[in-house]
Amino acid sequence: MDVLSVILETVRLRSFVHCQNVFSAPWGFWVPQDIGDVPPSARDLMKKISDAALGPNARAAIAEAAFFVITRGQCQLQIHGDKTVHALSAGDLVVMPQKRRFELRDDLNSPVRPLWEILRPEHFKTGAVVEYGGGGAITNFVTGGFYFQNSDAGRLLSALPPVIHMSAAQERLAPWLGEAVKILTQETSGNQPGARAVVNHMASVLFVQAVRFYIAGVPGNNPSWLSALFDSQIGPALWHIHSSPQTNWTVAALADRALMSRSAFAAKFSSWVGEPPLQYLINYRMQFAATLLEDPAAGVKEVAARVGYHSESAFSNAFKKFYGAAPALYRQRSR
């Protein structure tokens, strides 16, 4: 029961590669958490950079995440407000699931400049290599990101740490991580037909691998939604909810799938997931329905049936209670 695959399909994971960077020491830059961190004089430029990086297909993104692949040299990563310094070297992959202000530089003593003073929208439109720095030791890195078009992505991303650092020096990562870095380096440095499609698909693989890597290090007895996905009792119940939301699930039916008594299942589910089973089911149904409504060809009655409502009016009332707007109005606003 691969519940992670079901969830990744539901949140509509998309990935993209920004550009290849060739920076020479000393260098350093900081990236804002949101537009509120940007001075008014630079907001228009930052918006253009963001639009060029994400592309028109990502305008409806619910959530975003970023990644770096170091292909040559070394650098230091630090999240704003966190004293932890992540030392990165060639072959390393870093995934940042949450939008946080951060600094990246060749050395902790190097000054940092805001991103908008280094990058320009044309860097993303043309796929040009970005060169910057003082002329010293070279660091090459590929930057990219992920975006999600379903609000359920927020639960997944918030369950992950601010930084997932996968080092090429870790023996269990060496085989596939080395090959992934090699492919990204080759495809972003050449002009082969279809290169952008290759690296974008590769980026999606990197996100899944990063989630796997993090999960593998989480203690199995640590109560959380992410741990629950892989728990031998709660995991099957979550798989059934996500793979078949239209089913008339009851606590007793889900407890049967978990091979637990009704009371023990309800208590463990609430403790690990953070809400009772039926509330989780309702929330997921509404989030899934919102995704389905993005398709203009999907009728409200069809969407209602796919999330377990036999009555269109009952579904509309539940949806309006959850989102504050009837399905038709929600669709109109989202478009």
- Averaged pLDDT, please? 86
Radius of gyration, Cα only, in angstroms? 22 Å
Q: Could you give the count of β-strands?
A: 11
Largest sheet entry:
6 strands, mixed
How much helicity do the residues have?
40-55%
Which class do the helix and strand fractions yield?
alpha+beta
Number of helices: 14
Shape: globular
**What is the H/E order?**
HEEHEEEEEEHEEHEHHHHHHHHHH
Strand order, largest beta sheet: 9-1-10-3-6-11
Q: Can you tell me the residue ranges where pLDDT is under 50 for at least 5 consecutive residues?
A: none
Give the percentage of residues in beta strands.
15-25%
**Termini Cα gap:** 34 Å
Number of domains: 2
The oligomeric state of the chains shown is single chain
Description:
The strands form two sheets. Strands 9-1-10-3-6-11 form a six-stranded mixed β-sheet. The longest helix is centred in the middle third of the chain and has 22 residues, at 195-216. A hairpin with a 6-residue loop joins strand 4 and strand 5. The protein is globular. The model has no long low-confidence stretch (mean pLDDT 86). It has 335 residues and is α+β, with helices and mostly antiparallel strands. Helices cover 45% and strands 19% of the residues. The chain folds into two domains: 3-216, no CATH class; 225-334, Homeodomain-like (Arc Repressor Mutant, subunit A), CATH 1.10.10.60. The protein starts with a helix and ends with a helix.
Attribute tags:
335 residues, globular, 2 domains, Arc Repressor Mutant, subunit A, six-stranded mixed β-sheet, alpha+beta
